[in-house]
Design goal:
Blueprint: H1 3-22, H2 36-49, H3 72-85, H4 88-102, H5 111-116, H6 121-129, H7 136-172, E1 174-175, H8 185-191, E2 196-197, E3 202-203, E4 210-211, E5 220-227, H9 233-247, E6 252-259, E7 263-265, H10 273-278, H11 288-297, E8 305-310, H12 319-331, E9 335-342, H13 352-360, E10 365-368, H14 373-381
Parallel strand pairs: 5-6, 5-8, 8-9, 9-10
Antiparallel strand pairs: 1-4, 2-3, 6-7
């Protein structure tokens, strides 16, 4: 093939890609026509991101127009198309956009629709918000969709979480005559700074501090306090999975509490995160103070307790009382962690005034990805600085 032919092929490919991005019509300037698989992909994109027509509307020459409308058969066909033409990660984004842009949430109440969708965390959040309106004929299908997502998350997150936290628990039992490989050098250096020799630029460690090995009877207590307002859907899903993982560790006593203006203790369902999720009720108001009061009443060993509040901090209760409770728990020795979100969705919206007030109490609030959560919990269990992103 000649160099001219190669340049022509590359140019045609660039035009094809621009045509797919711009969506066709006289204004796109590409003059490129699509056929076969490209045309089918363009139609699937046009149905969601097109010009606002209804299902079955007549398409102008080369231009995209919306083609989903409110028809379940059309939507089911479209869901099948996008799974054929796009990778799973793109399918999940398109499904989420379809639910938000075209108001398709109600169609998820039909079993046939649920069987056609690609399960992901955002879909689980939508299903949980529809839980109370869901007909009995759909609930089993919905549980199967949720279980599939939960099992995928457990497979991805459980082993690393258990390994990280087991190490943290082992290190939390300190010994004063450690073997060399058990020496905690950071604590040893801090404890021996008075023995610093400037002429040698070194510290003489008179007292060694080491990591111990936690006995089976040694336990930490973890309370997950989760805001179940609608904006926290993804966080509720991840927190329920992590709660089940923590509950499976004999050295950690785990309690899981969800709240809006009411409080539900789901600790007895932690062996099955799907039951936990269907025990939540996304939406409603927020009373953080009331939820923290309940959690505070369950603390029996403050110095060995970690409270994790997962909330965007938009408080509908008594702000000053909420802050007093956090201060009281910290003064008693509780390790308090505030997560504005537990998800991969990026920077969340949150109440900055409340976040600043918590930071002033020594309980900084930050968003956390699922991958970082084990490290955050390990630091909290060891009472060391949190790895704030």
């Amino acid at each position: 093939m000649s160099g001219t032919d190669n340049m022509g092929t590359a140019g045609d490919e660039r035009l094809r890609r621009w045509r797919m991005v711009l969506g066709g019509g006289e204004a796109d300037g590409t003059g490129c026509a699509l056929a076969g698989r490209d045309a089918a992909m363009d139609a699937a994109l046009g149905a969601l991101y097109g010009g606002g027509g209804e299902a079955g509307s007549r398409r102008t020459s080369g231009a995209r127009s919306a083609g989903l409308g409110g028809s379940a058969p059309n939507v089911a066909r479209w869901l099948g198309d996008i799974r054929t033409y796009f990778p799973s990660s793109v399918v999940q984004v398109m499904q989420r956009d379809a639910i938000e842009r075209l108001g398709l949430a109600a169609l998820l109440l039909e079993p046939e629709m649920l069987e056609a969708v690609e399960p992901d965390v955002h879909l689980v959040g939508t299903l949980l918000s529809l839980n109370k309106a869901m007909p009995e004929t759909t609930k089993e299908t919905a549980r199967a969709v949720v279980r599939k997502v939960v099992e995928q998350l457990e497979k991805k997150l459980a082993a690393r979480t258990r390994a990280t936290l087991t190490g943290a628990l082992d290190r939390s039992a300190r010994i004063s005559r450690p073997r060399h490989h058990d020496i905690d050098w950071n604590r040893t250096i801090r404890a021996n700074l008075k023995n610093y020799l400037p002429e040698y630029r070194t510290v003489v460690p008179e007292r060694l501090i080491g990591y111990g090995r936690a006995a089976q009877s040694v336990k930490k207590e973890v309370i997950l306090c989760i805001d179940q307002s609608g904006s926290m859907a993804a966080s509720v899903v991840y927190a329920s999975v992590f709660g089940a993982v923590l509950a499976s560790m004999r050295s950690i006593a785990t309690r899981l509490v969800v709240f809006d203006t009411a409080i539900v203790d789901l600790t007895d369902q932690l062996d099955d995160p799907v039951d936990v999720l269907f025990g939540t009720q996304l939406g409603g108001g927020t009373d953080i103070n009331r939820a923290l009061a309940y959690c505070q009443s369950k603390i029996t060993r403050p110095a060995d307790t970690v409270v994790v509040l997962i909330s965007d901090l938009y408080e509908g209760g008594i702000r000053n009382e909420m802050l007093k409770r956090v201060a009281a728990m910290k003064a008693a020795g509780v390790e308090f962690v505030t997560l504005l979100a537990l998800s991969d969705e990026g920077a969340p919206a949150y109440d900055r005034e409340h976040a600043a007030a918590l930071a002033a109490l020594g309980a900084p609030a930050f968003a956390c990805t699922p991958d970082l959560f084990p490290e955050v919990m390990a630091a909290a269990l060891e009472n060391r600085p949190l790895p704030i992103p």
